[in-house]
Amino acid sequence: MSKFPVLTLVQTCAIAALAGLGHPAAAQTPRQTREAVLPPSVLTSDDPQRIPRRPVAARQTQTVLKGGRVFDSLGEKAYPATVVIEGRTIKAVLPPESTDWAADAQVIDVTGKTVMPGLIDLHVHMTYPDPDTPIDEQATEGSGVLRGARNLRYFLESGFTSVRDLGGVLNAPFQLAQWSAAGQIPAPRVFAAGHIITGTGGHATERPITPNHGPAYQWERDGADAWRGAVREAFKQGAAVIKIASHFSADEVAAAVDEAHTLGLPVTCDCETLYIDRAVAAGVDIIEHPLPRTDAVITAMGRKKTASVPTLQVYQNVLDTSGGFYGSTSRRFTMTSQSNFDVFKKLKAAGVVMGVGTDTIGRVNTMTPNPYIAELKWFVKGGYTVPQALVAATRTNAQILAMDDKLGVLQAGKLADVIVVDGRPDENLDDLARIDRVFKDGRPWVQDGQVVIPRHVSAPLAKPSPPAETR
Predict the structure, then answer these.
(1) What's the confidence (pLDDT) of residue 335?
(2) Which of 6, 10, 78, 86 lies 20 to 30 A from 339 at CA?
(3) Are residues 424 and 335 part of one domain?
């Protein structure tokens, strides 16, 4: 068993035992899925809340991507094929010789290129301030929305059709999610958590207090009832996932997981050492980051199907630029590139499902997609093949989002989130920087690597002309 600098061996063994079924926090509520009570014929919102929505009658035009190679993420091999998009969904993936599409379909020649599902980043912060954001604008909703809209454009033109935003300013992440879902801004789908929930003095609330270490970004709550209430408030605002962070007690995390799962939402945790033991015992769905933990809890994660989003590259960037993580009461442990990578390798060996996320924040957004490509290369260094890393970036990420019924693969009936890459990313990950086209919801958002926005259609006046004679 491994031992952390902040824990004695006796403490480590005792806390690891919390993952056993005998501990009260181990009583888990299975996540409720709306699919269980809604038949497939019912249209719902494209998020884990699964809100029924009214059908909209519209002519279903077709777009055909012909002549390229398809990496569908259902398997690990690319093959020659044609992808037919109809309306918001994928109509078919056809053999290359087939011409089974409508006579008036728009046919696009993608010879020499690779068609694949849109990329998904499971850990972003679109609305956090940049270093040059004025201090009085760092905690305002309007400034956050503007920063987020800019950063989301960077992601969309880089081939991302979904991002999971794990903390932002006030209601800004939810506004961006709503505007993206309505097709009103060039942006990936946004699966937002909203405020991070932590105990008083927990992660991202440490002193010295700054605007983004305060109540505009985090909720400090104490007690199981307060944590349950915070989950309900996040759900009310539109959360697609609940994010919690250490520190917390066993009853607090158990209450949050119980409430979130009852509401149908997954829970992810930014936590370390003994808090990972508590979170896994309580039934948390995902653990973020490669932070220290015992071998026992890694085994428990594999057994209990607790997923991981390791975000190795963001900490490598911290080590490269600052030499270490300093001055934080929520990072009271030694961090090295090797120790982080060792956690990754142990998670893989234990069979833990791992998704791809960058923890992109502030000015790092301007580096997109470089941090994501670097993260995929960490996966390859850790034992994944290049195709397996792409599957993690698409199909596995959709599963962790609780959206694999709609996203993550190229398959008839799935939402048409499709990208065209000018290269062979299943052979060379660097080709992911060469995005040619992006479709989200079947709508073309990027063409020749550039965001395209059609001119708006002017609404007519109620009376199209003035009276014939005026006096």
Answers:
(1) 82
(2) 10
(3) no
User: Does the residue 463 lie in any domain?
Assistant: no
Joined together, the tokens standing for residue 101 give 């599409």
Residue ranges making up the domain that contains 15: 9-35+119-368
Q: Is the preceding peptide bond at 39 cis, omega within 30 degrees of 0?
A: no
Tell me which of 335, 368, 401 is where a domain ends.
Answer: 368
318, HSE (Cβ side, Cα atoms, 13 Å): 19
Q: What Cα–Cα distance (Å) separates residue 388 from each residue in 77, 350, 369, 396, 448?
A: 10, 17, 19, 10, 27
The domain that contains 70 carries what CATH number?
A: 2.30.40.10
Whether 433 and 333 map to the same domain: the answer is no
User: Is the domain of 81 the same as that of 157?
Assistant: no
- Asked whether the beta carbons of 38 and 52 are under 8 A apart, the reply is yes
Q: Which of 178, 153, 112 is nearest to 434 (CA)?
A: 112
Mapping DSSP to helix (H, G, I), strand (E, B) and coil, where does residue 162 land?
Answer: strand
Q: What angle do CA 204, 148, 162 make, to 5 degrees?
A: 95
From CA 368, how far away is CA 191, in angstroms rounded?
18
Q: In what order do the strands lie in the sheet with 307-309?
A: 218-220, 196-198, 242-245, 267-270, 286-288, 307-309
Confidence of residue 319 (pLDDT cuts 50, 70, 90): confident
> Domain check: are 317 and 343 in the same one?
yes
pLDDT at 469: 67
Burial of 311 (0-12, 13-18, 19+ CB in 10 A): buried
The model's pLDDT over 408-432, given as tens digits with 9 standing for 90+, comes to 999 999 999 999 999 999 999 999 9
User: 97 in a domain, yes or no?
Assistant: yes
Residues 288 and 437 in one domain: no
Sheet strands side by side (includes 418-421): 79-80, 69-70, 114-117, 418-421, 435-440, 443-447, 450-451
Q: Mapping DSSP to helix (H, G, I), strand (E, B) and coil, where does residue 122 land?
A: strand
CA distance 91 to 98: 14
CATH of the domain at 235: 3.20.20.140
Among the listed residues 407, 350, 409, the one whose alpha carbon sits nearest the alpha carbon of residue 382:
350
Work out the number of other CB atoms within 10 angstroms of the CB of residue 280. 27
Query: Structurally, how many domains does the chain consist of?
Result: 2
Same domain, 21 and 144: yes
CA 413/CA 88 separation, integer angstroms: 9
